[in-house]
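Progress report, Aim 2. The chain analyzed during this reporting quarter is listed below.
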Amino acid sequence: MLDGCGRTIDYLRLSVTELCNYRCRYCMPEAGICKRDHREILSVEECVEIAEASAHCGVKKIRLTGGEPLVRRGLLEICRGLRAIPALEELCLTTNGSLLPSMAAPLREVGVDRLNISLDTLRPERFASMTRLGHLSDVLDGIKAAEAAGFSDLKLDTVLIGGFNDDEIGDFLALTMEHPWEVRFIELMPMGPCAEWDKSCFLPGTEILKRYPGLQEIVPNGVARRYRVPGAKGTVGLISPVSHDFCGQCRRIRVTADGKLKGCLHSREEIPLRGLHGEELEEAIRRGILQKPQRHHLTERPSDTPRNMNQIGG
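Predicted structure tokens for the chain:
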């Protein structure tokens, strides 16, 4: 389906929980969030119903997000229900990776096609400081488990933060020499807890190219500009939502864990979907697609959304 700006919208990011077993500094408050009554969060059946209605509106790819989706009770049932949607071509999931040692194989068995694993540093002490609750070894074990379960084309998502991990760029590039992974550097966005951080924290994706001019450009994938270190098995992706506004190519909508459709990550506008069924539900999704904003305004001001990232879906 085309939105009001003529963009084809065929990608849904469906959040299944606001909860997470980490407290990453740019994403969540140190004390975490107040746990909602489970009745305030989409049920397994509601997730599948919304996904089916979205498919009727032209969605072909769904990514499950959170919070941390692997802490969601009933996640495998959700995946199984989504995989049964005939029009769905790709089912993906973004995770911090810490629970993959036990979950990778079941996810593969219920039809998840591809995983993105968040990894902002390769240094254990920094990892503990950023996540507040996590251990780097758990994520590294999760990556191994994902590969053992048959997940290929793994993507490692690294939020680039000046003064925190920009001195590790070379270490992340080195991973692509030995592994067929795509390491994707994502610009830090001024929203939630980090909206008031010092400007030096917000590095443009071009900083990677400035420091490593030998990277060879290859065919892009979606919003990611892609490169390769000469001779590497893997690739490098640059996702620049702030400095390299890709709103004109955006093809996604989002549904939050409490059932609100968002046409843009940074928009205040939300359309409630809970309690709607059949044509009424599809009409609400179509309305959300048609009302999708032309662009965000991150170069002019912080994000307009009052939600933290974990409340929207990464």
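The chain has a mean pLDDT of 91. The chain is about 25% helix and 20% strand. These observations will guide the mutagenesis work planned for the next reporting period.
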